[in-house]
Each structure stands twice: as C-alpha cells, then as structure tokens.
Amino acid sequence: MNGHRFIHDNYGSKRQLVFLSIFAAALFFLLLTRLWYLQIVKSDELQSQSESNRLRLVPVAASRGTIFDRNGAVLVTNRPSFSVAVIPQEVRDRDALLERLSRYLEIDRAELLDKWEKGKGRARYYPIVLASGITRDQLEVLEENRLWLPGIEIEMKPVRQYEDGTLAAHLLGYIGEVSEEDLKKDAASGYNSGDYIGKSGIERSWEKLLHGRDGGRQIEVDARGRVLRTISETPPAVGSSLVLTIDAALQKQAEKAFGEQAGAAVAMDVNTGEILAFVSNPGFDPALFAGRMPPDKWKEYLEDKRHPLENKALKGQYPPGSTFKIITALAGLEEGVVDERSSSYCKGAYVLGHNTFRCWEKKGHGTVDLKRALKESCDVYFYQLGEKLGINRIAAYARKFALGAPLGVGLENEKGGLIPDSAWKEKRYGKKWFQGDTLPAAIGQGYVLMTPIQLAAMIGAVANDGTVYRPHLVKRVIDQEGRVVREFKPEVVTRTSISPRSFRLVKEGLLAVVNEGGGTGGQARLYDVRVAGKTGTSQVVKQRDKRGAIPYQYRDHALFVAFAPYDRPEIAVAVVVEHGEHGGAAAAPIAGSILRAYFERKSPVGKPANADSAPPGGEEKGGTGESGQEMTKPAPQGEE
C-alpha cells in the first residue's frame, strides 16, 4: 500500500515538473519574442524615440536677400524677430501651457490651439511655431516664467525691414507666415509651419531666389530643456539679392505728387522697358503683415474707399478715355482715312441715326484738323474717324501695341485690359456690334479697358516710333558675395510696323497738347525740356446726390500719358487719378512732377513756361451704351 502511494506521489511530481517546464518554456519564448520584436523589428523607431528624449532639432531660418534700387539704395533688408515655438513631446499638460501663453502674449487661446493642431502631424520633437513677431517685453515675460512653460522655445527669425516704410509697397509686396494652403503647393516644398514666405509683389514672384536655404542645429538638452551641447549644425544659405529698375528718389517724388488722391502711375525707360517708378496710391505698411496685424489697422485698410491694398498699377483696369485717341489717330493715318490736312467740323455734338454723341466742349471746336483735334481733344473729330474706320480696324491697331493682354511684367495676377471687336461682342453677349458701339470705343470709352502699365508701354512705343518693350522690374540678381548671377536685357514684345510719318504727325499733336495755347495738358509743361502728352477723362457712373453733387465713387477718372524729351525720348509716364475728374487738372500735374524729378537728377529744370498759352482746356466725354443710347453729361470750362 505504501509502495502504491509512493508511485502515485512520484507520478504527480513528474507531472507538475512537466507543467512547470512547459510554462517556463512558454514564458521564455514570449520574452524572447518580445526581445526580438523590440531589438529587431522596432529598433530604428525606438532608437529614434530614445534620441528624441535628449536631442532636439532647432531650425535656423535663412536671411532673405536684400532688395536694392537701380542706384544701389537699399529698399528692403532684414531685422531679427522672435517667435514662440513648442516641442509637443515635452508638454504634459497642453491646456495649462496654452492658458499661460495666452495670458502672457495676449493672444486668444483658440488661435494658439489652432496652430498646435495644425502642427500635430509633424515629428513630436520638431518645434511648432505658436506665435511670431513677439515684442521684447513679451520675450522678457516668457523668460521670467520659463520654469512654468515646459517645451517652449524662443526662436529668432529674420523678417523684412522696409527702409522707407510704405514706399513702393505694392511693388515690393510683403511676407507672411506660410499658410496651410501654401504648404500644399509645390512652390512651398521644404517650408515648415511658422516659416515666412512672400505673399505679394516682388517678394512673392521672386520667392525662390530671395528665400535662400534654411539650416538647422541638433542639440542635446537635459530634462528641463536646457541646452547641454550642439551635436551638429548646418548653416543657412542667405538668399540672392535683387537690383530693381526702380529709382527710389523718383518713386518718392511720384508718390508725393499724388498726395491723398487714389490712383496709379508708371514711369518707364522708352528704350529698354525698365520701369523707373511704379506707384499705386494710397499705399500700406508691408511690415505689418509679417507679424500680427493690429485689428484696427486691418479694419482701416478694408474700409478705406480708396482701396489701399489693391495694386492699381498692375490690376486696375480703366477706360483709357482720350489717351486712346492716339491709337485711333494712328489707325486713321495708316489706313489712309485721314491725313494732316483732313478736317471735321465740331459743333459740340455728332448725330448718328437717332443718337447724339456729345463733345466735352458743348459749344463745339469748329473746324479742326488732326493736330488740333489731338491738342484740344475734340471728341467729334474722333467720332467721325472711328465711324469711318470701324471697330475691327481700330482693335487691330490697338493689338499692334500688345494691348488687350498681359504684358508679362513679372508680377503675379497682372490684368490684360480689354480691346473689343465685333467677334468679341458676339461671343461675350451673343449680340451684333453696332456703329453706336464704335464711336465711344474710338475715344477710349465703352468696352475698352487698359491698365496703367499698358498705358505706359503704349506711350513709350509711340515715343520710340513703334517698338513695344516688355516692362520689367529687375535689372540683375546678385549672390551674397555681390557677384552678378543673372542680368536682364531689354525684351521686345512686338514692333508695330507703323510708318515714321504717322508717328511724326501724331507726336506733333501730342507736343501741342502740352506746349501750345488751348492744349489740354499745359500743367505738365517743363521749361527746358519739351514734353509731349495726352489727357484723358473716363466716365465711371453718372449719378448725383440730392444736392446735385457727384459722390466720390461716381466721379470720372483722370488720365495723362506723356514722354520726354520730345526730340530724343528717354522716359514715358502714365498717370491715372481715380475719380480725379479731369486729366489736365488732376493727372497732368502729377506727370509733370515725375518728369521734373527725373530730369533734375541730371540738371536743374526751369519752371513751367507761361508764354502765350491760355489756361488748359477742359475735357469731358459723351458716349453711348451698346445699342447707341445717348449718354451725356455737362462739361466744365477748364481743368485748372
């Protein structure tokens, strides 16, 4: 019996030993499998996580290239700016951290949270920029409270400094933080949240060259985020610099000449296409866009009826008014419809069918030839000439000057204006073109639209007898050592193939506009330099208030185009004063100021001549709607 019990106990012990062995083997197998998974499968990931516990990647932003004017004057450079970034891995209580930052920086917590959320997809040890452009006072507050702000880093980034404030703001443009939309585009490849990118103007169009290449530092930190040592460093590469065609002194004078008036002006070298001045008035402060735009300033910009954020020189499309008579005159001469001896009789209006088309001079100009029609801007003469030519021939000559399409200035969103013809109206409205549409088009009204930069290119081509140069803004690109990387030469868009004789006859009329009695552009006259030009006034909407006055937004635009010197042209100028009403009174003086500033840099220019000239005459336009319905308006007796 005892033997049987011994055998049974021995068998039980063996069974327990087997179970223990199996359990130990299974446990060992699980441990071995886990070790294999951690050491082999997850080794790279775990090593990266381990390194990130003590290593930190600090991006180092590159300085953007400097922008100079044609004479080497600095227009845009850089200054240091401070940003607040966070390392998400080092933050245990996100809500508490954001609450403190909101209080210290006086920034809405929702705004900070939004930037945090947008940066979540990136590596946990990579900093997410929460606020840019903080003040030195805010920086001091953050440093004083660093102990209660785990994971916070203060980054220094260069931002733009515009040396002359608002000077050439629309041309230079501005930079801002890269947006989520920007990051989705190929153009923003390599950018990170919180980086700065060009948003408009030269800053945007030349972003790739100006931006440079960012660098970075890999540093070791302790548990509190204090820097222990730098492990590796890649220095940033400074962006290339640009030398513009703009003359800063001329730009200043052009902007000053506008005063508080809204509008645009472009001054251009007639023999190269280089833009010497590029004005869109009023301007704005581009430096505000690199940080947090003050709400009151943003509201001021948006509510200003003069639209300071709009680039009027590039995107403003205006009826060219009587400045377009230059094209109609050239078409008439080239087609043999008129010559210098051809005349028309103006009695203050022209009747076509059942419609009456008014001249700005209600009492009429009497008998006028081409020169006098240009000098005194007689509408009736050009109504009759337009009727003889027809819209298709007028449009064909306008397109010889590359009008009706963007000129390719080198800035984004350039508008192309509009040169209508019969096919265009059929396609656009499904209606036939009437002669009643042609007459206003002949004097730059109706459907015709042009931008200020197109006006400058047009008058420049008239000055040089028919070569349309592409207006351009950059002379050369230079690297950080000052070496020329690329230089830009004049580029011909087209040649008009119009005869020198036709240009001579038209230019004689333009010279009379400024320098002879009765000319509408006398206020652009210079004493030592002969200026040739043409005034224009384009209708907006005919609407008066209860007192009979025309509200600002419904007043006519004032235009003036000119070139000088008459015998050997160097510079062309186009001026548009929004709601300025009369080209001779509002736009011509601005053009005169620009021309005076240009020539005085060479030698002093005398006062405008007063000899044998009557005060400049007025200029108002009558026109028609698409079916020839009469549109008339009273005309002033002078443009002083």
Would you give an account of this structure?
This protein folds into 2 domains: 57-242, Penicillin-binding protein 2a (Domain 2) (Alpha-Beta Complex); 248-284 and 294-630, DD-peptidase/beta-lactamase superfamily (Beta-lactamase, 3-Layer(aba) Sandwich), CATH 3.40.710.10. By secondary structure, it is α+β, with helices and mostly antiparallel strands. Helix content is 35%, strand content 21%. Helix 10 (248-258) packs antiparallel against helix 21 (583-600), helix 13 (325-334) packs across helix 15 and helix 15 (379-389) packs across helix 18. The termini are far apart.
Give the topology, please.
Elements: H1 2-41, H2 43-54, E1 55-60, E2 67-68, E3 74-86, H3 94-105, H4 109-118, E4 128-134, H5 136-144, E5 152-162, H6 169-172, E6 175-177, H7 180-183, E7 196-198, H8 201-205, H9 207-211, E8 215-221, E9 227-234, E10 241-244, H10 248-258, E11 263-269, E12 275-281, H11 295-303, H12 312-315, H13 325-334, E13 343-346, E14 349-352, E15 355-358, E16 366-369, H14 370-375, H15 379-389, H16 391-400, H17 422-429, H18 435-442, H19 452-463, E17 467-469, E18 474-478, E19 484-487, E20 492-495, H20 500-515, E21 532-538, E22 557-564, E23 571-577, H21 583-600, E24 623-624, E25 630-631
Parallel strand pairs: 2-10
Antiparallel strand pairs: 1-8, 2-3, 3-4, 3-5, 6-7, 8-9, 10-18, 11-12, 11-23, 13-16, 14-15, 17-20, 18-19, 21-22, 22-23, 24-25
Helix pairs in contact: 10-21, 13-15, 13-16, 15-18
